[in-house]
């Protein structure tokens, strides 16, 4: 039995059925693209970072939309490891433990689920098609 299942998970694509199955089997859900970076590449879909609901919640807490999304993951019991190579964003990503989202704010974020995957279908990922160098590594 795996201990962690890393899946694409952000406000626009929440995969609640997979999360429930993970929880049933004691598997920690870990969010891939937890702040919806993949949505910036999804044709016809507005970036989750530009979502009005998330921007309003961010304003209410004096935080960024990315911090609101990370706090949402934390409060809902998920692991979320955002990617950044910028020191300021890395520091910002850690600064999510001095505020708490209300039940209404959590529900508003949960309501953003479109069910539309931003990344590739997991069953179709191959090294030939998706392997690429990571310059920061």
Fold-level CATH name: TIM Barrel
Query: How many β strands by DSSP?
Result: 3
Count of all domains:
1
Neighbour order of strands in the largest sheet? 1-2-3
The description of the largest β-sheet is: 3 strands, parallel
Please give the count of helices.
6
N/C terminus separation: 29 Å
- Uncertain residue ranges: none
SS strand fraction: 5-15%
- Going by CATH, the architecture would be Alpha-Beta Barrel
Helix and strand sequence: EHEHHEHHH
Give the CATH level 1 class: Alpha Beta
Give the structural class: mainly alpha
The chain-level mean pLDDT equals 89
| Overall geometry | globular
Supply the CATH superfamily name: NADP-dependent oxidoreductase domain
Rg, rounded, reads: 15 Å
Question: In summary, what is this structure?
Answer:
With 137 residues, the protein is mostly helical.
Provide the descriptors you would attach to this structure in a database record:
137 residues, mainly alpha, TIM Barrel
Structure write-up:
By secondary structure, the protein is mainly alpha-helical. It has one domain: NADP-dependent oxidoreductase domain (TIM Barrel), CATH 3.20.20. The protein contains six helices and three strands; from the N terminus they run E-H-E-H-H-E-H-H-H. The chain has helices at residues 16-24, 52-61, 65-75, 87-94, 103-110, 127-130, and strands spanning 4-8, 28-32, 79-80. The protein has a three-stranded parallel β-sheet. It is globular. The chain starts with a strand and ends in a 7-residue tail after the last helix. The mean pLDDT is 89.
């Amino acid at each position: 039995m795996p201990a962690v299942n890393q899946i694409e998970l952000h406000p626009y694509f929440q995969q609640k059925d997979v999360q429930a199955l993970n929880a049933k089997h004691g598997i920690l859900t870990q969010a891939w693209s937890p702040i919806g970076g993949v949505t910036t590449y999804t044709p016809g879909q507005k970036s989750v970072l530009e979502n009005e609901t998330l921007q309003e919640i961010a304003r209410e807490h004096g935080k960024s939309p990315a911090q609101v999304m990370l706090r949402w993951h934390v409060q809902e019991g998920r692991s979320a490891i955002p990617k950044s190579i910028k020191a300021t964003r890395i520091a910002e990503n850690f600064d999510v433990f001095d505020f708490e989202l209300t039940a209404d704010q959590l529900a508003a974020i949960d309501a953003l689920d479109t069910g539309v995957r931003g990344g590739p279908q997991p069953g179709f990922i191959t090294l030939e098609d998706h392997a690429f160098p990571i310059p920061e590594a």
